[in-house]
Design goal:
The complex is a heterotrimer of chains A (254), B (241) and C (433). Helices cover 38% and strands 0% of the residues of chain A. Chain A has 254 residues and is mostly helical. Chain A has two domains: 105 residues, Orthogonal Bundle (Cytochrome Bc1 Complex, Chain D, domain 2), CATH 1.10.760.10; 94 residues, Cytochrome c-like domain (Cytochrome Bc1 Complex, Chain D, domain 2). In chain B, strand 18 and strand 19 form a beta hairpin. Chain B is built from two helices and 21 strands. Chain B is 10% helix and 43% strand. In chain C, the strands form two sheets. In chain C, strands 3-6-7-8-9-10-11-12-13-14-15-16-17-18-19-20 form a 16-stranded antiparallel β-barrel. Chain C has a single domain, classed as Porin. The chains are: A mainly alpha (254), B mainly beta (241), C mainly beta (433). At the A-C interface, helix 1, helix 2 and helix 4 of A face helix 4, strand 13 and strand 14 of C.
Chain lengths: 254, 241, 433
């Protein structure tokens, strides 16, 4: 028993003493090892060529990401930019609610880092372009009825209803005939569902309308909505369903 | 080792690429020539039904004239981008900010040229939400996607760092379309209502002149520019029936 | 019964067991792959053993928890059924068997009696999962419910409260239903008892009962406790007649870089009972009339280390346990019987389609209940190694070629107190659809 515990602590020491080449979540992976990770977990939907046309893709409606353009919806970076490694890690780690993209939390950071390095080989954009700096999300003010009311005014002023509808059900006048960059039909999100695909915390929601969703009709409102207005709008959206976790600011963000 | 090698390789590749192609060199151009001409549409412009608006009809109206073929005096064709292909040296790029206006549920101008390093002012005159969503025409890659939620809103953004043909859409009003040609040089012009274009201060030499129309594609011509003199290059497009 | 007679009976029993009972298998479930569009490699390190993602999926009640688990999101044609069959050729040789012609080595070979597992499982509704596994279907016609349970997942909105009701596999360090080998050598420590013990409790056998299970995100910390009626017990008056308790807790560390990608340590233990008396009819015990329950206990630990890239790991598993059977369970015993044992298993997933594995099992009596018997009587050890080559896998099905060798030695239980050794050579195909 004692010998075993010595062996075990040796393993722990070995693992901890390993050179700290990691530069944060998702960074510094090995694309060669990442290819195996991709084949193990990702290929059946995203396809051997990284074109989002794996063997399961035709059976599902939110289509798997095509990696060849280097266009990604969920980012902390400004509209049009590549995502950061940490952004990709978050998407892989937490999954995309309501789609067949599961949470890959359990496969661990090591696997995710390697597969991110491999995913980047599908688009030449990763060689010529760099992600712009992440947006700064200020601390969340308290959730309050007054803030929700102001948020509704921002919703109206910003004409969110054009796509998302007067009652945020995703049924605005421009809701139909929308297409994403790959020509697939896409609908504005029904914000009353209580789940946002890329995360439900306040800062997750904040990020969506400030950065926009690349490859989709959802534009960036960074130039037309101030940070204060943005938090009010977050609170308005959170008021639409009891399922949203409230007062879950960037400090507490997972 | 592999990483070092691939870095070295791509560095080598890059330098080769830049040596072969696109590096544009700024020189002082005195007494340059001018490339000018008219782009004409041969025969009758095809009948294009007006755009039927499907949303915000209270503001946009029920239909809008379709600006695919805008033909003026003597068959002159508007919105054709004419440029000197692959010109390697010449005057400095303009630095003024170009404008793309969302007005009456359309983009204005429909076609324009620009040079790398310029900025673009995206503005809206309409009291409805537009979004301006430029994409690389070849790869479909989104350059950015900006919301213009209310009347009088404007924002100035840089153009992409590398020259490309940019296709602009408004997802909220799927009929809206604009084209921005971005070059690494300043030698381009967009035809006016009568199909005229004029490209000034061209260093003497022989150039390939290209005329591009969003539906009818592009045509090439060769032009030899002499110092201080205009050279006329006319183009004619025949629409497919 | 004389000692010789008993030895002969035991030896014949061992032979019969090996010949007829390949370990129950239930380990690969392509119906899940079809439902979620994932390849088998998403959940299996090398099938049928689960990887981290597969364990988290199972611990979540066969759910990905992304709003797509409820069966109403499936096409109406979806039917959560999988089939697993393992046609194989096995040659078995058992040494030192008593025959009328003297002590002989007995061998037999042939195409195995191919049975089939029907695996039906998934979710009935969100957070209500189930598993039903009828197994058998061999030419002897026997079909029985190997598993049949319903599980209420994430009670009170927390992953630390899951309740399983029905016949289930207790939360073993390494599932007895997911061995890499197809030969008849099970993880010996799971069923081992002190020499002569009447208790037939096998940790690897599924039990009728209730399991509480809790885990954190990604199942890095897990705890499970099962309360059950010991399977195969002759029983007492009540259905709930021979109670058993099993518990298991683990913690796993994952590392972002370095030679060790994950390390898992755990403890487990069981306390089970077995009747020592019963009414008889013509000398034969009448089922359900047992009494005078006496306990068997096992307590142990596990260590699992994953070396190398986590997608193609070299996986080392060490499981060890100390056990004790009450002297009342052992004929002629004057003291409790105790033993130590365990196994070390090494599996290397060289590529997603190739696995080589090696296992060493060892169980040793440390105190014979009957002190007059040799200390090592009925000690057992086994070596199993093999290669699995998966020809093909998709998000629908998979099949693999398997080549294995295993040798299992039992001390002093052959003719004239000789040791016996069972050698098995196996070539087979493992199909799951």
């Amino acid at each position: 028993m004692k010998r075993l515990s010595i062996v075990a602590s040796a393993f722990v020491a070995l693992a901890l003493a390993a050179p700290a080449r990691a530069q944060g979540p998702g960074s510094g992976g090995d694309p060669v090892k990442g290819k195996v990770v991709y084949e193990r977990y990702c290929l059946s939907c995203h396809g051997e060529l990284g074109n989002g046309a794996g063997e399961f893709a035709e059976w599902i409606t939110t289509k798997p990401r095509d990696y060849r353009q280097g266009t990604f919806k969920w980012r902390s970076t400004p509209s049009g930019s590549l995502p950061t490694d940490a952004d990709l890690d978050k998407t892989i780690r937490d999954g995309i609610y309501g789609t067949f993209m599961p949470t890959w939390y359990a496969i661990g950071e090591h696997n995710r880092r390697d597969v991110i390095a491999y995913i980047k080989t599908f688009s030449a954009r990763w060689k010529t372009d760099k992600p712009q700096p992440s947006i700064v999300i200020p601390a969340e003010p308290p959730y309050s009825d007054a803030s929700v009311k102001r948020g509704r005014a921002v919703y109206e002023k910003s004409n969110c209803a054009q796509c998302h509808g007067q009652d945020a059900l995703g049924d605005g006048p421009s809701a139909h005939e929308l297409k994403d960059d790959w020509g697939n039909p896409i609908v504005p999100y029904d914000l009353t569902q209580g789940h946002i695909k890329c995360g439900d915390t306040g800062s997750d929601i904040y990020r969506v309308f400030i950065t926009g969703l690349n490859g989709t009709p959802m534009p960036s409102f960074t130039d037309s909505i101030s940070p204060e207005e943005a938090w009010d709008l977050v609170h308005y959206i959170q008021s639409l369903s009891a399922l949203y976790p409230k007062n879950y600011g960037p400090a507490a963000a997972k | 080792m592999r990483k070092v090698l691939s870095t070295a390789l791509s560095a080598a590749l890059l330098s080769v690429l830049s040596a072969v192609g696109s590096a544009y060199e700024v020189i002082t151009v005195t007494n340059g020539g001018t490339v000018q001409g008219v782009v004409k549409l041969v025969g009758q412009a095809p009948t294009v039904p007006p755009i039927k608006t499907t949303k915000n009809q209270d503001y946009c109206g029920n239909s809008i004239d379709n600006p695919l073929y805008v033909v003026g005096k003597d068959g002159g064709l508007k919105n054709v981008e004419v440029f000197l292909k692959g010109i390697e040296k010449g005057k400095a790029n303009p630095t003024a900010t170009i404008t793309l206006l969302n007005t009456h549920c359309m983009f204005d101008p429909r076609v324009q040229g620009s040079s790398t390093g310029q900025q673009i002012k995206i503005a809206s005159d309409d009291p409805i939400l537009h979004n301006t969503h430029p994409q690389n025409n070849d790869t479909n890659a989104t350059i950015y996607n900006i919301a213009l939620p209310f009347k009088g809103f404007s924002v100035t953004k840089p153009l992409p760092a590398t020259p490309e043909l940019i296709r602009v859409k408004c997802d909220a009003h799927e009929w809206m379309r604009a084209w921005i040609w971005e070059f690494d040089h300043p030698y381009y012009a967009t035809t006016d209502a009568d199909g005229h274009f004029e490209i000034k201060d061209v260093p003497p030499g022989t150039y390939t002149v290209v005329a591009w129309h969003e539906v009818m594609g592009q045509k090439d011509a060769s032009a030899t520019v002499a110092a201080g003199k205009p050279v006329t290059v006319d183009f004619s497009f025949t629409p497919k029936k | 019964m004389t000692r010789t007679a008993k030895l002969v009976t035991t030896a014949c029993g061992v032979l019969t067991t090996i010949a007829l009972l390949a370990p129950p298998r239930a380990g690969a479930f392509p119906a899940f792959a079809r439902k979620y569009g994932l390849r088998c490699t998403a959940c299996h390190e090398s099938w049928p053993k689960l990887n981290d993602f597969g364990r988290a999926f199972r611990d979540n009640g066969y759910q990905l928890l992304m709003g797509k688990d409820d069966t109403i999101f499936e096409t109406p044609g979806y039917w959560p059924v999988s089939v697993r069959i393992t046609p194989q050729y096995t040659y078995t040789q058992v040494t030192n068997q008593p025959t009328d012609q003297g002590t002989k080595n007995l061998g037999s070979g042939g195409v195995g009696q191919v049975g089939m597992d029907l695996l039906m499982g998934g979710v009935l509704f969100q957070n209500v999962s189930f598993l039903v596994v009828p197994t058998g279907f061999a030419p002897d016609g026997a079909v029985f419910l190997e598993s049949a349970w319903v599980r209420f997942d994430n009670l009170f909105g927390t992953s630390w409260a899951n309740l399983k009701l029905g016949r289930h596999e207790v939360d073993l360090p390494v599932s007895a239903h997911r061995p890499w080998n197809l030969t008849g050598t099970p993880y010996l420590i799971y069923s081992f008892h002190a020499n002569g013990s009447a208790s037939n409790y096998d940790m690897g056998e599924n039990q009728w009962g209730v399991e509480y299970m809790g885990h954190d995100r990604g199942s890095l910390n897990r705890v499970a406790v099962s309360v059950f009626n010991v399977q195969n017990s002759p029983g007492t008056e009540n259905f709930w007649s021979t109670p058993g308790l099993y518990g298991h807790a683990t913690h796993e560390w994952t590392f972002g870089s370095g030679a060790v990608s994950a390390l898992k340590l755990g403890v487990f233990g069981s306390y089970t009972t077995w009747p020592t008396t019963s009414f008889t009819s013509g000398g034969t015990p009448i089922p359900g009339t047992g009494g005078n329950l006496y306990p068997s206990e096992k307590i142990g630990g596990e260590a699992q280390v994953w070396f190398g890239p986590p997608a193609t790991p070299l996986h080392l598993i060490v499981v060890f346990a100390h056990g004790e059977d009450d002297k009342a369970l052992i004929p002629n015993a004057t003291q409790n019987g105790t033993f130590n044992g365990g196994f070390a298993e090494l599996g290397w997933t060289i590529t997603l389609k190739n696995l080589v594995f090696f296992r060493y099992d060892l169980c040793k009596n440390s105190q014979q209940g009957d002190p007059t018997l040799p200390q090592d009587l009925n000690d057992q050890n086994a070596i199993t190694f093999g290669w699995r080559h998966t020809f093909q896998f998709s998000n629908r099905s998979e099949y693999a070629l398997v080549a294995e060798y295993s040798t299992w030695q039992t001390m002093g239980m052959g003719a004239n107190g000789l040791n016996t050794r069972t050698n098995q050579y196996l070539v087979g195909i493992d199909f799951a659809y």
